[in-house]
Write a structure and sequence with these properties.
The chain is α/β, with parallel strands linked by helices. The protein has helices at about 40-50, 65-70, 70-80, 155-165, 180-190, 195-210, 220-225, 235-245, 250-260, and strands at about 1-5, 10-15, 20-25, 30-35, 55-60, 80-85, 95-100, 105, 110-115, 125-130, 135, 140, 145, 170-175, 215. The chain has a single domain, classed as Metallo-beta-lactamase, Chain A, CATH 3.60.15.10. The protein is built from 9 helices and 15 strands. Strand 3 (about 20-25) and strand 4 form a beta hairpin. Monomer. Its EC number is 3.1.2.6.
Length: about 260
């Protein structure tokens, strides 16, 4: 949960399914809220029931997978809201199709829409410009990245490096609680990295308490996330040893790393 004191924007994690997070943006000055990727309407409806007088105005969708869009129908039928989502993906009840470079206003905030294909062909991320907050869906995870269902390794690498170029203090809210497994993989890739080992121990304690490990930050991801480090010599060497390959490019390194993670 994050509160911005000057304009009272609170970001709440609503757990769904096994490891999904639906992110709810609460504007206390207007008692209006928006949600990101409501795969299930239930957690959103429960939050609204606990906060009488609040109005749900917007739904932001990163991509078309059912665990991200499954709750739209119920929410759309219950509230007068706008559904924003990728223009070239089948988003149910979408009111506003979006593409890379669009600027939209939600809860009075400016949001920069960033095209990040790889996990799916039309995947979007949402960057709240003034708050320096990123909703990365299933593209950038804490210490990891999404699987390649529709895109290519080069597309995903390009998308990740685009997000990594955001300011290092940018808070990253991804759509799944994958931090623990991702850090275990990161340590397998870079076993002598004491910072990763220390963060892994911290995250183990956080998860033992049943708490959320997010948000992460862009600066942290640049340091820990192996998928953002495919241009580093020590990472390339680790991938070469594991895969038995000669790596000639960052794209090849990424592709081999993603294959390793898929089978980790």
């Amino acid at each position: 949960m994050t509160t911005t004191p000057d304009n009272r924007l609170e970001i709440c994690a609503l757990p769904a399914f096994t490891d999904n997070y639906i992110w709810l943006l609460a504007d206390h000055s207007n008692q209006a809220c928006a949600v990101v990727d409501p795969g299930d309407a239930g957690p959103v409806q429960a939050w609204l029931a606990e906060h009488p007088g609040w109005v749900l105005t917007d739904v932001l969708i990163t991509h078309h997978h059912s665990d991200h869009v499954g709750g739209i129908e119920k929410l759309k039928s219950a509230f007068d809201l706008l559904v924003h989502g990728p223009e070239n993906e089948p988003i149910p009840y979408r009111d506003r199709p979006l593409k890379d470079g669009d600027l939209i206003q939600v809860l009075g905030r400016t949001i920069n829409v960033i095209g990040v294909p790889g996990h799916t062909s039309g995947h979007l991320a949402y960057h709240l410009v003034d708050e320096n907050v990123l909703f990365s869906g299933d593209t950038l995870f804490s210490a990891g990245c999404g699987r390649l269902f529709e895109g290519t390794p080069l597309q995903m690498l390009t998308s990740l490096e685009c997000l990594a170029a955001l300011p290092e203090q940018t808070q990253v809210y991804c759509a799944h609680e994958y931090t623990l497994s991702n850090l275990r993989f990161a340590l397998a890739v870079d076993p002598d990295n004491q910072q990763i080992a220390e963060r892994l121990a911290e995250v183990c304690e956080i998860r033992d308490r049943g708490e959320c490990t997010l948000p992460t930050r862009i600066g942290v991801e640049r340091a820990f996330n192996p998928f953002l480090r495919v241009r580093e010599a020590k990472i390339v060497e680790a991938i070469e040893r594991h895969a038995g390959l000669t790596i000639r490019s960052a794209e090849e390194c990424f592709a081999a790393m993603r294959k390793w993670k898929d089978n980790f």
